[in-house]
Amino acid sequence: KVFVKKSFDKTKITDCTIDFSKSTMIDSSGLGCLLAIKESLGIKECIMLIKMNTAVTRVVKIANFDLLFKI
After folding, report:
1. How far does CA 16 lie from the centroid of its chain?
2. φ, ψ for residue 18, nearest 5 deg
3. Of 7, 28, 33, 44, which one is least surrounded by beta carbons within 10 A?
4. 25 — phi, psi (to 5°)?
5. If you compute the radius of gyration of the chain from its CA atoms, what whole number of angstroms results?
6. Nearest alpha carbon to residue 25 among 64, 52, 62
7. Rounded to an integer, what distance in angstroms lies between the CA atom of residue 49 and that of residue 15?
8. Is the pLDDT reported for residue 1 higher than 50?
């Protein structure tokens, strides 16, 4: 979480796309990283999750992250 904050603090990011094409699954640690990225960028920025397989999509939707991120 500290690394994510330091990485984004000095930049002017208006949107972010996270590519899951090489991911076969996501667990609570991965969900926590997504939240840390969202928190670091702020509420107004658009974060899009793309190329998620069925397993990743299922976990993201069960966690209601489809309400926090664009899928």
Report:
1. 8
2. -110, 120
3. 44
4. -160, 170
5. 12
6. 52
7. 11
8. no
Q: How far apart are CA 3 and CA 58, in angstroms?
A: 27
Cα separation, 53 vs 1, whole angstroms: 25
Give the tokens for residue 7: 């990485």
Tokens of 57: 């999509």
Cβ(37)–Cβ(4) below 8 Å:
yes
Q: What is the pLDDT of residues 12-63, one digit of tens each?
A: 667 789 999 999 999 999 999 999 888 877 766 788 999 999 999 999 999 9
50, 45, 36: which is closest to 7 by C-alpha?
Answer: 36
pLDDT reported for residue 70: 93
